[in-house]
Amino acid sequence: MNFDLTEERQMLQDSLRRFLRDKYDTATRNGIL
């Protein structure tokens, strides 16, 4: 089985990470994730 993310899911993951990085401090991000 291929468990790699599709290109679309990878882009979504990258966008979410950037959003969380820009909006929340490290401690808050760790609590969310």
Describe the structure.
The chain has 33 residues and is an all-alpha fold. Helix content is 73%, strand content 0%. It contains two helices and no strands. It has helices at residues 7-23, 26-32. The longest helix has 17 residues, at 7-23. The N and C termini lie far apart (26 Å). The mean pLDDT is 90. This is Acyl-CoA dehydrogenase/oxidase N-terminal domain-containing protein.
Continuous helix count: 2
Q: Ends: how far apart?
A: 26 Å
Q: Strand tally, please?
A: 0
Radius of gyration: 12 Å
Estimate the strand proportion: under 5%
Shape: elongated
Main beta-sheet annotation: none
Poorly predicted spans:
none
- Helix content class: over 70%
Look at the helices and sheets and give the structural class.
Answer: mainly alpha
What's the SSE pattern?
A: HH
Mean pLDDT: 90
Organism: marine sediment metagenome
Protein name: Acyl-CoA dehydrogenase/oxidase N-terminal domain-containing protein
